[in-house]
Design brief:
The complex is a heterodimer of chains A (360) and B (483). Chain A has 360 residues and is of the alpha+beta class. Helix content of chain A is 27%, strand content 25%. Chain A has twelve helices and 18 strands. An eight-stranded antiparallel beta sheet of chain A has the order 14-11-13-12-16-17-15-18. In chain A, helix 7 packs across helix 8. The longest helix of chain A is centred in the middle third of the chain and has 15 residues. The model of chain A has no long low-confidence stretch (mean pLDDT 96). By secondary structure, chain B is α+β, with helices and mostly antiparallel strands. In chain B, strands 15-12-14-13-17-18-16 form a seven-stranded antiparallel beta sheet, sandwiched between helices. A five-stranded antiparallel beta sheet of chain B has the order 5-6-10-8-9. A four-stranded mixed beta sheet of chain B has the order 1-2-4-3. In chain B, strand 8 and strand 9 form a beta hairpin. In chain B, helix 1 packs antiparallel against helix 3, helix 8 packs across helix 10 and helix 13 runs antiparallel to helix 14. The C terminus of chain B is likely disordered. Classes of the chains: A alpha+beta (360), B alpha+beta (483).
C-alpha cells in the first residue's frame, strides 16, 4: 500500500491537495501520527495519503470560556500541556501515545475517564472538514451550547477518514481538578465492586479494571477527593494512593485486540464470555470491555453471545492477514442510511475506501 | 395528492385518529411560536410505529410533505404545518416501555412527557438529566428533534448526550433501529445526526435514553446583586475557580419583576439581578463548593444569599426562573423570546449592547439566561396594538447579529425551525449550508420530511456543493483557518 504522502500545513493547502487528487481521481487515505493506523479494516489501496501532522496550530484557547480550537495534527498530549497552566484540560484520555486531536476524533477513541467526561462526540463543539473534492465546510461553532444546523462533527467523529478529512476541531474543556486520589482493590468481579463504590455516593472520574484489580479514580478539590476515596476504600477493601497504577487505561496486549460493548448491567456476563482470553480490561460503568488475544478465536460465536447483551464486537487490532479474512466491524444497525451518507459525501468512493462498515 | 392521502388515511385509521375537519385542523396551526400559523391539510394522531410508517410510506408514494409534532411547545416554528401536508401528531405514543436501572437506560415512545420519565425513575434513585423549562409538558420526541438542553445541561450535556438508541421511520417509510442500550454503536454516528435535526431527517418512534443516579447532595443558591454586571462577574469568578455547578442562571431586574408578578418567588427586594445556581454531587464536594460559591458571590457584590433548606424552597427558587417566559406576559401584552448564545466572557459587553439597542428602539428587553454556558434568552417586550411589532422584531433580530458578532450562535436550544432560517446564512457560508444538506439528501432526497425548515435555501439533491465554485473563497484568501 505504498502511496504518495501529502502533508499540507494549512487548511487552504489541504483543500488544494484534495482538489488536486480529485482531478486525478485518486483514492485518498488520511493519517495523523498513526497510532491507530492499524484500526478499522485494511481497506483498498490508496494513491495519496494525507498526513495532518503539519496542521499543528492551536488556533485559540479561550480560557474564560473553557473552549479550545486546534488543528487536526496537534498531538493530544501537546494540547493538554498547553491547557494545563490555565488549570484546564480536554476530557479525553485514550492511551495511544502520540495521537493527534484529529486522529482521536476520527476514530472516536476514548479512555477510562469517559465515565465522567464522555467520548469525543460529547466534547466536540465545532469542526472544519475538507471533503474529497477539496470543499471546506464548517459546522457547530465555538460556543458550548449551539443547535444551529446539522451536527457534522458527530457524523465525522468515528468516521475513520471515509467522509472527508477533519482539519480543525473546537472542544469544550473542563477544569483540571487539583487533587487526585486512587483506590485500587483486587477483584475478579468488577461489576459488584463498582456498585459498592457508587453506593457510597461517590462520583469517580474512572473505574478501570485491568483483569485483576479495579482502580477507582477521584479527582476533585482536596477534601472531596479525600473523603470519597476513603469511603470507597472502606467499601471495597482497597488501598488509597495518589498515583495511577502502571499501565493505567492501556489496551490489553494483542496481537488481536477486540472492543466489546454491552448493556451496563451485563458486565459480569460479558466478562464470563471472555474469561479464557489472555488479557481483558474494562471501562466499568461505561459498557466497554477490551480483549487482547493471540488469535480471533470463534468470532461469530462471540458476536452472537455479546449481541444478546445488547452490544457488539469490533476487531480493532489484528495481523493484516487476519483482518482481511474477517468483517472487522460485524453487524451494523442502520447500514443502509450509512451507505447513503457515504454516497452523498464521497460519491466517487475515494476517501479511505473499504476501511469502514459494510465495505464503505 | 393530498386528497388521495386523506382518502387512504380515512380508510386505514380509526376515525378518532384522523382529523380533516377545518375547525379541528386549526387547533394544530402553530406550535409554541404562535406568530407563525398555517392550517395543516391533514392531521393523523399516530398510536404506533406502524401508523407512522403507513402515513410516511404513502406520503413518499404520493409526494406529500409530512411534519411530525410532539407536544407543540417548540419555540422556533419547527413543527409549523403546511396546508399541502400532513401533520403526524406523536402525543398518543406516550408509553414508557421500560426503565432499567441496571443498564441505566429507559426506552420511551416519543410522546412521553419529559418530566414523566424522571418521575418514573425517581423511586429507583435515578432521573433523566435534560430539563428544558417546558419539561412538564414537552415530549421526549420533541426533545430529540431539537436536541433540547435546559438549565442543567451546563454539567450534564444536551439530549444528544443522553440518547443511545432510536427507532426511526425514514422518509421512504422504512423503519430502522439505530444504536440501543450499549454505548458506541458501530458505524457512523447516525444518532448524532438525527438528534437536533428538527424533524427534517426522519420521524423518531422510540428512543433509548440514559438515566442518571440521583446525586447524593443538591444545594440551590439564590444570590441577589445590585447590577447585572456584578452578577456576571460572579459567574466568571465561579467558572474561573474551577467550580462546575449543575446550573447557573441569571435574571435581570425586568425579568425579576415579571416573575414576582406571576409566581411570587420572593426574590431579594431591590435586586438588579439574581443568580440561581445549583451544585450537585457527593456531599463532601458540594459542601466545599457551596462555601466557595458563597464567597465568590459575596466578593462580586452579592447583597443577599439564600441557600434552599429543602425541596420546597428549592422548587420556589426554580419556579421563578422556569416560569420566566410566561411571566413576562404579566408586564407586557406581547413579547418575543430570543435564544442567542455568546462566549460567556462576552456577557457584560453583550448585555450592555442589548440595553443600548432596546433604548434606541424604545422597547424593553428582559433578560433571562443560562449564564454558565452563555445562552441568552432576551425577552423583547412590546405592544402589538400600539404598532410596536416591527420595532420589536428588529431589536430581536439585531440581538442575534450581536451574538454572532461575538462569535456565538443564533440558537442555543430552541432550534432554527422556520423562525431563524433567515439567520443561518449569517452564521454559516453557502458552502457550509450545502454540505449540511448532503445529510438531508442522504435521508430525504425528495424533500418531503418537514421541508422548509432550518435552511434558507433548499438544494436539489445531486448537486455537488462547492464543485462549481472551485477553491473555497476563504482558502483562496488564505484565511481558511478562521473558524
Amino acid at each position: 500500500m505504498s502511496s504518495n504522502v501529502a502533508a499540507p500545513d494549512s487548511i487552504g493547502e489541504l483543500s488544494r491537495v484534495m482538489a488536486d487528487a480529485a482531478s486525478q481521481r485518486h483514492a485518498i487515505g488520511v493519517r495523523g501520527f498513526g497510532s491507530k493506523a492499524g484500526w478499522a479494516a485494511a481497506g483498498d489501496p490508496v494513491d495519496v495519503t494525507v498526513d495532518t501532522q503539519r496542521l499543528d496550530r492551536i488556533v485559540e484557547h479561550a480560557a474564560g470560556d473553557l473552549v479550545v480550537t486546534a488543528q487536526a495534527g496537534v498531538p493530544l498530549a501537546v494540547l493538554q500541556e498547553q491547557l494545563a497552566p490555565a488549570r484546564q484540560w480536554l476530557g479525553l484520555d485514550p492511551p495511544e501515545a502520540g495521537a493527534t486531536v484529529g486522529g482521536v476524533v476520527a476514530t472516536a477513541a476514548s479512555g477510562p475517564r469517559r465515565l465522567l467526561f464522555g467520548t469525543p462526540r460529547e466534547l466536540l463543539i465545532g469542526i472544519t472538514v475538507v471533503l474529497a473534492d477539496g470543499t471546506i465546510a464548517h459546522s457547530g461553532g465555538k460556543v458550548v451550547k449551539n443547535v444551529a444546523g446539522y451536527d457534522l462533527g458527530k457524523l465525522f467523529t468515528g468516521s475513520f477518514g471515509t467522509l472527508g478529512v477533519i482539519a480543525q476541531c473546537t472542544f469544550r474543556l473542563h477544569p483540571l481538578q487539583p487533587v487526585r486520589r486512587v483506590v485500587t482493590a483486587a477483584t475478579d468481579d468488577p461489576a459488584s465492586v463498582a456498585e459498592r463504590v457508587f453506593a457510597t455516593g461517590a462520583v469517580p472520574s474512572a473505574l478501570e479494571w485491568d483483569g485483576a484489580a479495579l482502580t477507582a479514580v477521584f479527582e476533585s478539590i482536596e477534601s472531596a477527593a479525600d473523603t470519597q476515596s476513603a469511603e470507597a476504600a472502606a467499601a471495597i477493601g482497597g488501598e488509597v494512593g495518589d498515583a495511577l497504577p502502571a499501565g493505567f487505561g492501556e489496551r490489553p496486549a494483542g496481537p488481536v485486540l477486540l472492543k466489546l460493548t454491552h448493556r451496563l448491567g451485563a458486565l459480569r456476563e460479558v466478562l464470563a464470555l471472555v474469561a479464557s482470553h489472555a488479557t481483558v480490561s474494562a471501562h466499568v460503568g461505561s459498557g466497554v470491555v477490551w480483549v487482547g488475544a493471540e488469535d480471533l478465536g470463534d468470532l461469530a460465536a462471540l458476536r452472537e453471545a455479546v449481541a444478546a447483551h445488547g452490544g457488539s464486537v469490533v476487531v480493532v487490532g489484528a495481523p493484516a492477514e487476519a483482518k482481511r479474512e474477517v468483517d472487522v466491524w460485524g453487524p451494523v444497525r442502520g447500514l443502509p442510511v450509512m451507505r447513503r451518507i457515504k454516497e452523498q459525501f464521497d460519491p466517487d468512493r475515494r476517501m479511505s475506501p473499504g476501511r469502514f462498515v459494510g465495505g464503505i | 395528492m393530498l386528497d388521495e392521502l386523506v382518502a387512504d388515511c380515512v380508510r386505514h385509521f380509526a376515525p378518532s385518529q384522523v382529523i380533516t375537519d377545518h375547525a379541528q385542523l386549526r387547533t394544530y396551526e402553530c406550535d409554541g411560536l404562535a406568530s407563525y400559523r398555517c392550517t395543516p391539510g391533514l392531521v393523523i394522531l399516530a398510536s404506533s410505529t406502524a401508523d407512522v410508517a403507513f402515513v410516511v410510506r404513502r406520503c413518499a408514494e404520493l409526494g406529500v410533505p409530512f411534519i411530525a409534532r410532539g407536544s407543540g411547545t417548540g419555540l422556533s416554528g419547527g413543527a409549523l404545518p403546511r396546508t399541502d401536508g400532513v401533520l403526524i401528531v406523536m402525543s398518543r405514543m406516550d408509553r414508557i416501555v421500560s426503565v432499567n436501572v441496571d443498564d441505566e437506560r429507559a426506552v420511551v415512545e416519543p410522546g412521553v412527557i419529559n418530566a414523566h420519565l424522571t418521575r418514573a425513575s425517581a423511586p429507583l434513585g435515578y432521573y433523566y438529566a435534560p430539563d428544558p423549562s417546558s419539561q412538564q409538558v414537552c415530549s421526549l420526541g420533541g426533545n430529540v428533534a431539537e436536541n433540547s438542553g435546559g438549565a442543567h445541561c451546563l454539567k450534564y450535556g444536551f439530549t444528544a448526550h443522553h440518547v443511545t438508541g432510536l427507532e426511526v421511520v425514514l422518509p421512504d417509510g422504512t423503519v430502522e433501529r439505530l444504536g440501543g442500550a450499549a454505548p458506541d454503536p458501530v458505524g457512523y454516528d447516525v444518532i448524532g445526526a438525527v438528534v437536533g435535526s428538527e424533524g427534517t431527517l426522519c420521524v423518531v418512534t422510540e428512543a433509548t435514553v440514559r438515566l442518571m443516579r440521583r446525586p447524593q447532595a443538591v444545594q440551590t443558591v439564590l444570590a441577589g446583586f445590585r447590577t447585572i454586571d456584578d452578577a456576571g462577574a460572579a459567574v466568571s469568578a465561579i467558572i474561573a475557580a474551577g467550580v462546575l455547578p449543575a446550573a447557573i442562571e441569571l435574571m435581570d431586574a425586568l425579568a425579576i419583576e415579571a416573575a414576582e408578578a406571576a409566581v411570587h418567588p420572593g426574590y431579594p427586594a431591590g435586586a438588579g439581578a439574581v443568580m440561581v445556581a445549583e451544585l450537585d454531587g457527593p456531599d463532601c464536594e458540594v459542601v466545599a463548593q457551596l462555601a466557595d460559591l458563597e464567597r465568590l458571590c459575596t466578593d462580586a457584590g452579592a447583597f443577599e444569599i439564600r441557600v434552599a433548606a429543602d425541596d420546597v424552597e428549592r422548587a420556589l427558587i426554580w419556579k421563578g426562573r422556569k416560569s420566566a417566559f410566561a411571566a413576562v406576559g404579566r408586564i407586557s401584552p406581547d413579547y418575543i423570546v430570543q435564544d442567542g448564545v455568546i462566549p460567556r466572557t462576552a456577557l457584560s459587553d453583550v448585555l450592555r449592547a442589548i440595553d443600548d439597542l432596546a433604548a434606541e428602539a424604545g422597547v424593553r428587553v428582559a433578560n433571562v439566561f443560562h449564564a454558565g454556558d452563555g445562552n441568552l434568552h432576551p425577552l423583547v417586550l412590546f405592544d402589538e396594538s400600539a404598532g410596536e411589532t416591527e420595532r420589536a422584531e428588529e431589536v430581536s433580530s439585531r440581538i442575534i447579529e450581536l451574538c454572532l458578532a461575538h462569535g456565538g450562535s443564533i440558537t442555543g436550544e430552541h432550534g432554527v425551525g422556520h423562525d431563524k432560517k433567515v439567520h443561518m446564512g449569517k452564521m454559516f457560508n453557502e458552502i457550509d449550508l450545502d454540505v449540511m444538506q448532503l445529510v438531508r439528501c442522504a435521508f430525504d432526497p425528495d424533500n418531503i420530511c418537514n421541508p422548509g425548515k432550518i435552511f434558507p435555501t433548499p438544494r436539489l439533491c445531486g448537486e455537488r456543493p462547492g464543485r462549481t465554485r472551485g477553491v473555497h473563497p476563504l482558502a483562496e484568501a488564505g484565511i481558511a483557518d478562521v473558524f
